Each structure stands twice: as structure tokens, then as C-alpha cells.
């Protein structure tokens, strides 16, 4: 039942060879990876006015231009900086890899944690803001706001589980529709002003205060949400068709130009039309004043709603790729580096959906409350990424390194100042949660990495370990298969036990790529073991099916009456949280194999020591262990 539902929602699985066809070019990469930044047009301007209007009244419509200009300057600094990141780090990972390579492990972990928090908040903010837009236009939906938000998170999750190519088609067209509708809004708004239209003056309740630097900085901090999503292109370079770096740099340039036109145009338009966002969503109110309740009004409202929802798709593209890179580096559970049926990082997609849904419920879909948490994480990652690139140029130099170092150094300094501004001005509004959460995530990631180091130390096979297989025993009509994922002490222990119960033993491996199979063959030869190794390639990343097909094959020559014992190697860890960090594929294999009456399943455990005991034997500081691994 579950498998049928899965096939209906996600579709048929794709083989590994289809990965090249799942990448996108500029046409579809632009809307998918820029929708977060482009969607900020819908709320960045109104967040600036939220800060300015209650304090300085009509002067807000003048000062919003100053704040917008500062944000656009910062946008182009980031664009130039991240173009260099794309060129030098084409394998993805963005700020995490850049900071780790150039500033050290701790800086990399902080960047990864900060960016992960930002992606989760991107989903929560975008969807909550999108639903705000639509309930402004259709008030009867207000009681169902949270239910709509959760439905849309589920919709995005399923859409992305269907694979990169399908999701780019699903979510790409609405992004282009939004761009054209807002461009039409800007052009229509200025044409209406030029033909003599005088916007009505709204009633604004405010407490008269002078325009201070602190006030402008607070407004600037709110408007900087327009820059979230810029880093997504550098994180997802491997998702582009070849030449990937060229396509990614083109998308980043186009993205910056689009934000310049749309964000700059709508905020300037707000100064003429005196839009007060406390009465509803700014773009929807602006469309009503320019177009009335005509078809264009509903097009703007609909496309704004859709782009805000689909803006979360940038996170669904960037977050799984980021955590997959971090999983390969063993700072988060390894399962997050595994690709699903449609060659997407499905575990990362599901986790992103679950955590963002919890945030929406916890904050009751309040955009202003969530925005306070929003920009801190992304600007921390901006700062670390640009600092890492700056250090890289100082170390490696190369052609025009002075100019490149200046761009990245100035970018690092600018974004660091913005981090301080946001942390101070938004601290009471919720930024304190992120300031607390990031160190906790960093601590958790370090514990995960140290655990994997301790496990690897205990499972590592040495030349002396081949003696463990030297066991002779006579047996009766019992054939043994030992499925091994890799060659380690747990699999050696299982093979040793197999020799005690049968002379007919086979080590069986399922490989999802040729490189993995080749490495295992080379390592297995070193053991000089009498047990043959059989490797089966699984293009659809299935584990159980190749094993069953092998048992039924002529090569295995199963005879009626033979009993087959499948011995599953397994290692056990000491603490409950460590269990989450390892695959439990053996449970699924055991459950399915026990459905066959001629197959016996045995689990061969290897009890690992506590991480602290193993790491203490190294007699080195923890940071040294992290750096050397």
C-alpha cells in the first residue's frame, strides 16, 4: 500500500545513469534558485515601512529610498563575491566548504549551521508570507491560514521528491509569471502617475521622532531579507548542466539585475503611492490602487502568493545539497547524503519540510515574528564565506588576486557589520533564538563528527585482521551469504562466524557506483580470503532486490532443500542519540528475508566502545583530531 502511494506521488525511480538529465541550465535554474531572493520583493519593502511609519510618519516614504539604495549596493557586493566562490568551489557546499577549507573546521561548522537555520526559516517565512498575501485578497480564508501553510509545505516536499527536472518545471513557470506581473505593476504605476493621477493621502498614526541612524539601521536590517537566497546558487552548482560554473555565474548575475529592477522599482513606487502595509500586503494594496479590482489586480495577488510559496523551493534546492555535503564530511547523519528514488537528496527534503512546518505552527504563521529570526543566519554565512575567500587569495594569490581579495574582503567587512546591526536591532524580536540555536547546532555537529571518528577507529581493518578468518569447520547443507556494505571489523566478524557454520560462504555486496565496487575489491584482495566476494551493481539504489535475484540465479545454483543463512553484520553504539546517525537497513533486510521459508537470518553484532574512551586514546586535543581527520 505504501509503495503504491509512493509511486503515485513521486513517480517511478530513476537509475543512476539518468543523473545527467536531471540537471538544469540557465532557463530553469534561474527561477528555481532565485525565487527566494525575488520573492523578497513582496515583503522586504513593507518590512522597512513597518519600522519607519510608526516613528516618522510620512517621512518614511522618503527614507525608504535611502535604505533601499544601501541594500542594492550590498546586493552587488555579494553578487561579485559569490561569483568568485562559484568559480573556485564548483562542487557545491557554498559557505560551509569555503569557510572550512580556508578558516578551519570550526568556522565551516558555524557557516553550515547558520545556513541550515536560514534555509529552514526561508520555508517558514516564504509560505507564511505567501498565505498572508492571499488572505488579504480573499478574507474568508483567514481562519484556515495555518492549515493552508502546512498543506503548501507538503505540496513543496512532494514536488521536490519528484526530482530536480520535474520540480524545475513545476516551480519555474510561476516565478517568471511573478517577474512579469511586478514589472507590469511598476510600469503601470508610473504611467498612471504621468497621466496626472494623484494618490490619496492615507491616515498614519505615529509618534513623532527625528530620523536617527539607529532607526535607519533597524529599517536596513529588516530590508536585508531581500538578500536571502543569493548564496543558493553557489550551494547548488553541481545541479547545473556543464559547464556548471558558467551557468551558475550567469544565473547569479541575472538574479541580481532582476532584484535591482523589481525591489528598487516597487519601493520607489511605494513612495509615490504612500502604501501603508499595516492595512494589508504592500504589493496587493499597490496593485489595487493602480489597477483597481481588475484582472491585473488578481494576477498580481495570485502571482505574489505563488512566488512567496515557491520561494521556499530555493531552500528545498539548497538545503538538501548543503546537508549532503556536510553528511559526506560526517558533521550530520550520513543518511542525508543518500539519494532517493528520483536522484534527489530525499532525506534532506523531508527533514526541511518537517522542521519548517513545526516553526509555522509554533509562530502561528506570523511573518513579522519569523523575520526577526530570518536574516541573522544567512549573514553569518555570508561573512564567513567572504572571509574564507579573502584568506584564500592571500594564501594562493594567482592572477588579479589583489582585486579579488579586495572584493571578498570588502564583502566580508560589509556583511559582518550587517550581522551586528541585525543581531542588535532584531535581538528582542526573536534574533536571540538564532544566536542561541547556532552554537547548539555547532556543538551537535562536533559530537556527530567525533562519534564517526570513534566508530571508524574501531571498525578499521588492519593487515593483522586477516587471521580472524582462518577458521575451519564441517557443515551440512547449509549455505551462507554475508551481505557487506564495506570491509570493516563488523563485516570481518560476520564472515568469521560464517566459516564456523559452513564451508559454502559468499560475501555479497551491492554497489551503487563503480568506484565504490572497485575500492571494495581492492581492499578485499588484501585479506587473501578464501571466501569469494560477489558484487552486484544496483542502478536504482536498491539493496534487497539484488540479493534475492542472486539467490534465484543460475550462478548461485540453489538446490531444493538447501537452507540459506544470511548473516547481517551490525555494530551497536553506546548512546541513544548515536543510533540516529547510522543506517538501520539491516532491520528492513531482516524483515523481508524472513518472508522466505528457506532463508535464515542471523544478526552478528559488534559492540563499540564509548566515543570518549576511543578519542582519549589518541591523546590529542579535540580540535586537532577534527583538523587531522
TrEMBL record:
One cellular component term from this protein's GO annotations in UniProt: membrane
Transferase as UniProt keyword: no
Regions that span the bilayer: 64-82, 103-124, 144-161, 173-191, 211-230, 251-275, 295-322, 343-363, 369-393, 405-424, 430-450
GO molecular function, one term: transmembrane transporter activity
Database matches in InterPro entries: AA/rel_permease1, APC_K+_Transporter
Gene3D superfamilies in UniProt: Amino acid/polyamine transporter I
Record protein name field: Amino acid transporter-like protein
Keywords, ordered alphabetically: Membrane, Transmembrane, Transmembrane helix
Topology of this chain in the membrane: Multi-pass membrane protein
Subcellular location: Membrane
PANTHER family: POTASSIUM TRANSPORTER KIMA
Native source organism of the sequence: Caldicellulosiruptor hydrothermalis (strain DSM 18901 / VKM B-2411 / 108)
Major localization listed first in the record, in broad terms: membrane
Amino acid at each position: 500500500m505504501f509503495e503504491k502511494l509512493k509511486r503515485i506521488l513521486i513517480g517511478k525511480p530513476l537509475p543512476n545513469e539518468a543523473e545527467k538529465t536531471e540537471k538544469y541550465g540557465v532557463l530553469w535554474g534561474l527561477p528555481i534558485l532565485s525565487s527566494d531572493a525575488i520573492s523578497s520583493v513582496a515583503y522586504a519593502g513593507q518590512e522597512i515601512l513597518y519600522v519607519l511609519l510608526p516613528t516618522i510618519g510620512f517621512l518614511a516614504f522618503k527614507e525608504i529610498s535611502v535604505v533601499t539604495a544601501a541594500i542594492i549596493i550590498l546586493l552587488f557586493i555579494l553578487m561579485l563575491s559569490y561569483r568568485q566562490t562559484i568559480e573556485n568551489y564548483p562542487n557545491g557546499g557554498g559557505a560551509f566548504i569555503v569557510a572550512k577549507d580556508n578558516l578551519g573546521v570550526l568556522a565551516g561548522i558555524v557557516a553550515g549551521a547558520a545556513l541550515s537555520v536560514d534555509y529552514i526559516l526561508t520555508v517558514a517565512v516564504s509560505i507564511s508570507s505567501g498565505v498572508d498575501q492571499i488572505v488579504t485578497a480573499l478574507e474568508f480564508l483567514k481562519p484556515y491560514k495555518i492549515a493552508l501553510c502546512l498543506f503548501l509545505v507538503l505540496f513543496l516536499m512532494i514536488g521536490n521528491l519528484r526530482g530536480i527536472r520535474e520540480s524545475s518545471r513545476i516551480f519555474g513557470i510561476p516565478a517568471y509569471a511573478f517577474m512579469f506581473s511586478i514589472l507590469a505593476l511598476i510600469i503601470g504605476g508610473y504611467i498612471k502617475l504621468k497621466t496626472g493621477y494623484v494618490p490619496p493621502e492615507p491616515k498614519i498614526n505615529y509618534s513623532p521622532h527625528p530620523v536617527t541612524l539607529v532607526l535607519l539601521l533597524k529599517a536596513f536590517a529588516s530590508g536585508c531579507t531581500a538578500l536571502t537566497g543569493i548564496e543558493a546558487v553557489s550551494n547548488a552548482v553541481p545541479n547545473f548542466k556543464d559547464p556548471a560554473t558558467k551557468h551558475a555565474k550567469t544565473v547569479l548575475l541575472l538574479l541580481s539585475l532582476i532584484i535591482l529592477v523589481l525591489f528598487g522599482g516597487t519601493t520607489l513606487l511605494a513612495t509615490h503611492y504612500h502604501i501603508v502595509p499595516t492595512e494589508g500586503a504592500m504589493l496587493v494594496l499597490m496593485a489595487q490602487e493602480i489597477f483597481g479590482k481588475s484582472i491585473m489586480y488578481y494576477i498580481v495577488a495570485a502571482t505574489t502568493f505563488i512566488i512567496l510559496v515557491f520561494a521556499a523551493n530555493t531552500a528545498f534546492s539548497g538545503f538538501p545539497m548543503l546537508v549532503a555535503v556536510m553528511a559526506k564530511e560526517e558533521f550530520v547523519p550520513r543518511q542525508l547524503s543518500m539519494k532517493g528514488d528520483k536522484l534527489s537528496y530525499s532525506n534532506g527534503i523531508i527533514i526541511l519540510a518537517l522542521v519548517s512546518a513545526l516553526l509555522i505552527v509554533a509562530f502561528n504563521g506570523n511573518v513579522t515574528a519569523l523575520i526577526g529570526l530570518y536574516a541573522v543566519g544567512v549573514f553569518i554565512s555570508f561573512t564567513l564565506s567572504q572571509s574564507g575567500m579573502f584568506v584564500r587569495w592571500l594564501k594562493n594569490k594567482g592572477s588579479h588576486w589583489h582585486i579579488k581579495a579586495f572584493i571578498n574582503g570588502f564583502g566580508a567587512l560589509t556583511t559582518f557589520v550587517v550581522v551586528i546591526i541585525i543581531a542588535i536591532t532584531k535581538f528582542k524580536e526573536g534574533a536571540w533564538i538564532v544566536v542561541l540555536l547556532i552554537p547548539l547546532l555547532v556543538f551537535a555537529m562536533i559530537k556527530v563528527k567525533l562519534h564517526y571518528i570513534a566508530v571508524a577507529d574501531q571498525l578499521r581493518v588492519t593487515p593483522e585482521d586477516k587471521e580472524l578468518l582462518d577458521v575451519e569447520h564441517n557443515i551440512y547443507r547449509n549455505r551462507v551469504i554475508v551481505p557487506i556494505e564495506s570491509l570493516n571489523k563488523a563485516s570481518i566478524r560476520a564472515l568469521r562466524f560464517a566459516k564456523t557454520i559452513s564451508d559454502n560462504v559468499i560475501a555479497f555486496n551491492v554497489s551503487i557506483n563503480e568506484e565504490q565496487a572497485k575500492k571494495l575489491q581492492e581492499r578485499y584482495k588484501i585479506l587473501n580470503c578464501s571466501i569469494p566476494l560477489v558484487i552486484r551493481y544496483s542502478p536504482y539504489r536498491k539493496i534487497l532486490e539484488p540479493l534475492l535475484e542472486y539467490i534465484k540465479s543460475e550462478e548461485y545454483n540453489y538446490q531444493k532443500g538447501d537452507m540459506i543463512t544470511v548473516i547481517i553484520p551490525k555494530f551497536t553504539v553506546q548512546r541513544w542519540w548515536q543510533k540516529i546517525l547510522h543506517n538501520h537497513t539491516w532491520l528492513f533486510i531482516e524483515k523481508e528475508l524472513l518472508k522466505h521459508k528457506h532463508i535464515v537470518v542471523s544478526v552478528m553484532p559488534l559492540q563499540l566502545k564509548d566515543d570518549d574512551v576511543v578519542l582519549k586514546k589518541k591523546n590529542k586535543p579535540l580540535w586537532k583530531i577534527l583538523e587531522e581527520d
